[in-house]
Amino acid sequence: MWCISDLPPTDYRGHVLNDSKLSRAASAPRWMILVSVTLVMTLAGALGIVRAANSQLDTVGRVPAATAALSPASDGVENYLLVGSDSRASADPTDSDYATMGSETANPGMRSDTLILVRYDTATKAVAMMSIPRDLRVRIGETDRFGKINSAYQKGPDILIRTVQRALNVPVHHYVEINFSGFKQIVDSIGGVHICVTHPARDKATGFYIGRRNACKLQSGAQALAYARSRHYEQKIDGVWRLEGTGDIGRGNRQRAFVSMLAKDVAKYLVRHPLQTHVVLDAFSAAVVVDEGLDLLDLGHKLRPMGDGTAKSYALPVDSDMSTGSFVFRLANSAPALLAFFAGLGPAPAAE
What we know:
Layout: E1 17-18, H1 34-46, H2 50-57, E2 61-62, H3 64-69, E3 77-85, H4 98-101, E4 112-121, E5 127-131, E6 137-139, E7 146-148, H5 157-168, E8 174-179, H6 180-189, E9 193-197, E10 201-203, E11 208-210, E12 215-219, H7 221-228, E13 234-237, E14 240-243, H8 247-272, H9 277-287, E15 288-290, H10 296-302, H11 305-308, E16 312-315, E17 318-321, E18 328-331, H12 335-342
Parallel strand pairs: 1-12, 2-15, 3-8, 5-16
Antiparallel strand pairs: 3-4, 4-5, 6-7, 8-15, 9-12, 10-11, 10-13, 13-14, 17-18
């Protein structure tokens, strides 16, 4: 797709050309993305329909187990753990991407396909995002058993939260989760999201493909999910398809940039179609589950920087490791400075 290492994660559209022939029939991606949808709540308030928004958001699922594992309030910061679940339990055989997504029978269980920690500064109102690689080797929950961090989700959101807090030594104050199907519904509710590439890009495993360079293409929920899930991302450079070799790190970078783009597209859509706010809220309400104490309208207000391009973006510093016999990541020596910032104990490092 596009080489994110060359572009600021929240400003990459300035480097590419709009595709004037993009189809408005397509829609876009999914999750972590979930963050972007919080802008819906912000705009709902601005449009004077807070009461209706509150009524719709009352139907959002709450997770008592997650609530019990959260940290108490911290001075200066609030951290939100955004989780994209890879559960196929709601997969529809009639969906266009069913062949690449697979069924619950073929892909049993649940793992956290995406983990992003979002930091809100209560004094400056600034927002920062940090990707957590799914292959990070950690102690699971409060046990001494090691595993990849994404496997903690199989044991429940409370175990995942405790695993993240213990492994990174940062507090988690709120929990937001979305699954594959919900991600697609949210994107489709706004008529699609733009994905921008500097080179033709594809992932043959997920089915993602954009054949033009320097293009921003409107993508459907299924197409956007294929982008967000991409782990074998290739770019066509000088006529040759080349694997983008950063693996899970590059994937996390693209996901954070995509979250910002979805946030922008949600905001633009609701400004142009204010009477469709209830449709977007319905999609959001059906797609996510959160902890019991999370005020979704308040969250939307706090995360506005994710849609205006001012949120900072970070990748958790990690090193590759094969000492266990399989590929994993371990925290790099440079990680503590970034983690101290997310814990509210240190200054902000330079953003990527």
